Q: What sequence folds into this?
């Protein structure tokens, strides 16, 4: 894919982010207003998008490789982040925050629109599988456990219960279970209209959420987390894609999902386990800005 095409995709998506930033700067909306937007996206928009995309898509066993490779990248990233946190001698709350920020990417909110813009429906379907069965499942199954362990926080963690109650996962399960059943066109059109709100609202929400919070206090640690997130993980994804995958769409999605910025849900998980949420939020900000360059550069190497 040519550099001009990649930049065009990124610039178009950044236009939505700029709307969110402008609304925040003009005080039309506040950063806190991203929460109800995210609630609508998580419970309505994303499930509708997932169902309509997967129900009619060509799905075969080869798609399982995409989230499987995402898991490998996450596991390697987790090991590297834990070792780096120890080398930096971070206190428990900062160690847990560092691991979450360095490893788990915004594979839904950034990955979906970029994959769709780059590759159309085939890219979106692969991104959905990578996000839900890969990164998000790993975040819920491993991220919460690591956060609880490193923060020395005493709390019950039930990964299976949490993923089973995750609305996009429910939509994906329903889409796969009903693939042989005819769904009336008017209903699919209605769901499709709901799904179309996702990309602009996601990026507007990202724009609302981007704000510096004590970035100077965490500059060195944030830089280290950004290197893991935007250099190490995409490199792992690229090597795995070249070794295992044989179709360009899957390879591009694996590398894309590995190179997206830190997921905003990491801030929520960090708050739940009393981690250093300022560190996580600062990493979200820095990696989101840096990903404007990182995503196209890694795509050029696929």
A:
């Amino acid at each position: 894919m040519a550099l001009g095409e990649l930049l065009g995709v990124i610039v178009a998506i950044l236009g939505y982010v700029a709307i969110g930033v402008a609304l925040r700067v003009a005080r039309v909306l506040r950063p806190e207003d991203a929460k109800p937007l995210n609630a609508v996206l998580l419970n309505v928009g994303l499930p509708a998008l997932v169902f309509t995309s997967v129900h009619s898509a060509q799905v075969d066993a080869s798609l399982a490789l995409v989230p499987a490779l995402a898991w490998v990248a996450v596991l390697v990233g987790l090991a590297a982040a834990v070792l780096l946190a120890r080398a930096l001698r971070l206190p428990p709350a900062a160690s847990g925050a560092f691991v979450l920020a360095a490893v788990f990417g915004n594979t839904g909110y950034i990955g979906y629109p970029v994959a769709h813009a780059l590759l159309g429906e085939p890219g979106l379907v692969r991104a959905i599988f990578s996000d839900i069965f890969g990164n998000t499942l790993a975040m819920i199954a491993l991220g919460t456990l690591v956060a609880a362990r490193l923060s020395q926080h005493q709390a019950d963690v039930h990964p299976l219960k949490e993923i089973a109650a995750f609305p996009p996962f429910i939509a994906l399960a329903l889409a796969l279970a009903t693939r042989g059943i005819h769904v009336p066109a008017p209903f699919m059109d209605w769901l499709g209209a709901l799904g179309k709100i996702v990309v602009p609202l996601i990026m507007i929400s990202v724009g609302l959420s981007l704000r510096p919070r004590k970035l100077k206090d965490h500059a060195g640690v944030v830089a280290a987390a950004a290197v893991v997130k935007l250099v190490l993980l995409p490199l792992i994804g690229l090597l795995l894609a070249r070794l295992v995958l044989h179709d360009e769409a899957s390879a591009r999605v694996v590398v894309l999902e590995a190179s997206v910025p830190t997921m905003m849900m990491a801030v929520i998980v960090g708050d739940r386990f009393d981690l250093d949420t300022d560190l996580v939020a600062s990493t979200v900000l820095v990696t989101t800005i840096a990903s404007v360059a990182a995503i196209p550069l890694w795509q050029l190497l696929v």
About this structure: DSSP finds 13 helices and no strands in the chain.
